[in-house]
Amino acid sequence: MKSIHNLGLVGVGLIGTSFVRGLLENNIVSNVLAYDSNPSNLEHALNQGWICDQASLNKLSKVCDFIVIATPTKSIVKVLDEISTDLNAEAMLIDVGSTKNEIITHVSEKLPHLRTQFIPCHPIAGWHINGPSSANPDLFNSKNVILVPFPETDSDRVQYVCQLWEGLGAVVTILNDAREHDKIFSALSHFPHFIASSYMEFLLRNPSFSSNLNLGGTGFRDFSRIAGGSEQVWTDIFLSNRLELLNQILEFEELVSEIKELLNKGDKEGISQWLQRTALLRNSWRGSSK
């Protein structure tokens, strides 16, 4: 595989740093330059030897042949705006944001020249503890990574990015519709986080519950885990994909009303059938045993 001489990392957090660490272990990258608004993130990565030096966005755009934008979702467009003017014509760009339609629409309308260089990516991986200290080169092993390339992007470039992710153990899927991507991942990622955080807010508003969390078991631990994620990251995701999220909240409210009616009626058969259907779907998921 073709090596990357100068890789630029914008956002020295969990996902971006894990990606870089994986490429370093695979001897794909020679030199890593990084930009982050948080000096402590840069210092940690420098001390660990995961990056070679810090650099401005302007410098990254000029000297790097591959740039990874690993900032919170709402910042990705701002970074693209800033680096697009002086970007090396041969450079490749990827992001690792959780939503795609807002970003792809912006590039198509405002930065159309990037459509041959920018390959939007969405790794379905993470951890509830953010920052470079949690970075793990094996983070993407057996995890899904979604690519949503522009039609104008050369197939060789798309294939190269696929190979980079696959080299880290990821399972790559290509979707060609950004809106469909955001709809799917609202249901599979963003809406579950909304539910988990809403549940924790429910506990918070009831002191008799929130003061007894120590009595919770593995069910509470597993269900509530994702509510411990970064508020900055998830605020951006919710706002970026708010229309899909709102639509699914409305559908869910209708479902809750139906289930409430089963409980009101004491409908044992209806409740049992509902639980059987949901358990069957959950247990059919290939990740259910992990």
From TrEMBL:
Keywords: Oxidoreductase. It is an enzyme of class 1 (oxidoreductase). Transmembrane segments: none annotated. One of its GO terms (biological process) is tyrosine biosynthetic process. SUPFAM superfamilies: 6-phosphogluconate dehydrogenase C-terminal domain-like, NAD(P)-binding Rossmann-fold domains. Its EC number is 1.3.1.12. Residues 5-290 form the Prephenate/arogenate dehydrogenase domain. GO terms for molecular function: NAD+ binding; prephenate dehydrogenase (NAD+) activity; prephenate dehydrogenase (NADP+) activity. This is Prephenate dehydrogenase.
